[in-house]
Design brief:
About 50% of the residues lie in helices and about 10% in strands. By secondary structure, it is mainly alpha-helical. The chain folds into two domains: about 70 residues, Fe,Mn superoxide dismutase (SOD) domain (Helix Hairpins, Orthogonal Bundle), CATH 1.10.287; about 100 residues, Iron/manganese superoxide dismutase, C-terminal domain (minor pseudopilin epsh fold, 3-Layer(bab) Sandwich), CATH 3.55.40.20. The chain has a three-stranded antiparallel β-sheet with strand order 2-1-3. The structure holds manganese (II) ion. Manganese (II) ion binds next to helix 1.
Length: about 200
C-alpha cells in the first residue's frame, strides 16, 4: 500500500507564500486521490509491493492501455507530490549548501542562474506539468520539464528528481489565479534546500 508522505508541518505553515486552502486541497484531495488511484491500479496490474520507481520506469510495458495510463498518471501524481510536499517544508536553508551548492555553481554558474532556468522551464510548460532538477548517477545535475504527471523516471531519462515545481493550476489558482509567475516567485521562499541537498547526496 502506498501512503502519502506525512507532513510534519500544518497546512498554514507556508503562509503567505502557499496559502492554507491550497495546501489543504492539494495535499488532502489531489494527492490523496492520486495515492488511492495508484493503489487501485497497482493492485489490478499485480504490482502491489513493487517500488514506485520501478512501477514508473516500467509503466510503458503494461499492455492494457487503461492500466498503463492509470499507472503512469497516478504513479506520477503520487511520486511527484511526495517530493513536492517534502521539499516545501518550512525552515531549513534558503539556498543550497555543501556539495549541492558547489555542483550548482559548477553546472549553472550560480544559484540565481539555476533559479532563472527552472523558473523559465516552469513558465514555459504549456498546460499542466512540472519543472525538475534531477541528478544522474555520476552526480551531474539536469533541469527539465514534463507534461501532466510525467517525471524523469517515467520518461526513462535515467535521472533521479531532487527538486520540482508543480505548475498544475491546482497548485496556485486559489491564491494566484492566472499569475503562475507570482506563484513560482513565492515558491522559492519555501524550498527547504537542506532536504534537496540530502536527496542530492542520497
Ligand atoms: Mn499538484
Amino acid at each position: 500500500m502506498f501512503e502519502q508522505i506525512k507532513l510534519d508541518y500544518g497546512f498554514d505553515a507556508l503562509e503567505p507564500y502557499i496559502d492554507t486552502e491550497t495546501m489543504a486541497t492539494h495535499y488532502g484531495k489531489h494527492h490523496a486521490a492520486y495515492t488511492a488511484n495508484l493503489n487501485k491500479f497497482a493492485d489490478q496490474a499485480g504490482k502491489t509491493g513493487e517500488s514506485i520507481e520501478k512501477i514508473l520506469a516500467e509503466a510503458d510495458k503494461t499492455k492494457d492501455i487503461g492500466l498503463r495510463t492509470g499507472l503512469r498518471n497516478n504513479g506520477g501524481g503520487y511520486y511527484n507530490h511526495n517530493l513536492y510536499f517534502m521539499e516545501i517544508t518550512p525552515g531549513g536553508s534558503k539556498k543550497p549548501t555543501g556539495d549541492l551548492a558547489k555542483k550548482i555553481d559548477d553546472t549553472f554558474g550560480s544559484f540565481s542562474s539555476l533559479k532563472e532556468e527552472l523558473t523559465s522551464l516552469a513558465m514555459g510548460q504549456f498546460g499542466s506539468g512540472w519543472a525538475w532538477l534531477s541528478k544522474a548517477q555520476d552526480g551531474s545535475l539536469f533541469t527539465s520539464k514534463s507534461d501532466n504527471q510525467d517525471n524523469p523516471i517515467s520518461l526513462q531519462t535515467g535521472h533521479t528528481p531532487i527538486m520540482c515545481i508543480d505548475v498544475w493550476e491546482h497548485a496556485y489558482y486559489l491564491k494566484y489565479k492566472n499569475l503562475r509567475a507570482s506563484y513560482i516567485e513565492a515558491l522559492w521562499n519555501v524550498i527547504n534546500w537542506d532536504i534537496v541537498g540530502k536527496l542530492y547526496e542520497g
